[in-house]
Amino acid sequence: MTTLATAPDPGQRPQRPEADRPDAASPADAARAGTDRIAVRAEDLVKVYGRGDTQVTAIDHVDLVVSRGEFTAIMGPSGSGKSTLMHVLAGLDTATDGHAWIGDTEVTGLGDRELTRLRRAHVGFVFQSFNLVPTLTAEQNITLPARLARQRIDRSWLDEVVTRLGIADRLRHRPSELSGGQQQRVAIARALLTRPDVVFADEPTGNLDSASGTEVLTLLRRSAREMGQTIIMVTHDPVAAAYADRVLVYADGRIAREARDADADAILRAVAELGAVEGLVD
Ligand SMILES: Nc1ncnc2c1ncn2[C@@H]1O[C@H](COP(=O)(O)OP(=O)(O)OP(=O)(O)O)[C@@H](O)[C@H]1O
Hints:
single chain; alpha/beta; seven-stranded mixed sheet; four-stranded antiparallel sheet; 9 helices; 11 strands; about 35% helix; binds adenosine-5'-triphosphate
């Protein structure tokens, strides 16, 4: 049985020899280890909405290091701040305080135009609602971000990605001529084509039946394992989270627990325990 450990308090982390550590566990460790293995990093990140009585802290001094090629799931109760964390890390929303990096670029230091450029060239997105352009074919949808970023289309990489995703024979179809699962695979191909530093997936199976959802999760996991693609996925679903290498359980704007290779039962128990402790679930 896999148990989910309480996330370490960075201030109280036991000191172990560098070679003993399975992973760079904090921004300070990351800096020591060098940033080339690191896809995404946050240091003392804060996001506060509103003021006074209506103030909500959706990100409460979060430290996070995500290694390249890692598939991470962020799970947690509704309203805990998962989407806000993803949006701030991806440069879709601004931080109130602290720092976040994608690769070597500090996201929290960029203006709107630079953020747009960073997102186009270095970030892939997969959304619950697919977000494909209905008037474009599957192939045109897949190549759109690369064309917007004025990148040359790498035909052999495109062929490899669509073959691996099983949509090579669907490229001339428009989204309305594809099933939900096929549309989501087109969206994954679009996200992978620019070989981004990170793909953010927001409830990618939320609109799919369970068979298509399983297929999409398997493909995301293979993208990490076989193509070295870093993926951060927000989900409500412990079964979906169990496909990830690493699960972060988010509550009240903090990473409350985390685990590697946890099964769905262990994840569900951890969220339920946390909910009981925090009064978040009945
Ligand atoms: N633009 C905003 N203005 C004010 N408050 C906001 C805004 N966006 C989110 N919030 C608040 O921040 C908190 C975290 O919201 P967020 O959507 O990040 O949570 P979540 O864990 O992703 O929730 P869900 O699982 O329901 O999507 C909530 O209390 C929400 O009401």
